[in-house]
Design brief:
about 35% helix; alpha/beta; Rossmann fold; 7 strands
Length: about 180
Amino acid sequence: MLLIVDMQNDFCKPEGTLYSEHSQSVIPYIKKVLEWARKSNMVVAFSQDWHEPDDPHFDYWPPHCIQGTWGAEIVDELSPLENELVFKKGAYSVFLDTDIEHHLRECGIKTLIICGTLVNICVLHTTADALQRYYTTVVPRECVASLNEYEMEYALYHIGKVLKGTLCSVDELVF
């Protein structure tokens, strides 16, 4: 399964409330992997950060990805197709309070290719939860975004060395 994490307007577009230039810059790389996955008939899924206007999450983060708003929409460049899965989540990990595990079991999926933003928050927590459930995970380095180099290096080190996930380049993945 290709899992694209939180590539939403509030994170990826300059008008977004938690915009990261790096999140916008990874879109072409994720699009390349997405096109490859679709041509390969791979199951494709998206996580979508999804909050009520009065979410307690906003006690420590600015309001973002509020249900039904432009900011909560997945960026146009990566729009899900009708047959693709979208998991709305209110936590960092897509494994919390969604039915992703049901779909993984139902489809016999053992491997997740994880792309998205931010690598040190939602991508890291999702990857950790996948690995703790014994899914093989692959993270293409060019397909994850951070706010700065330290956060990128920390998260990739943690995914690769601590959690024992697989890190690769887009070219190694897409063939």
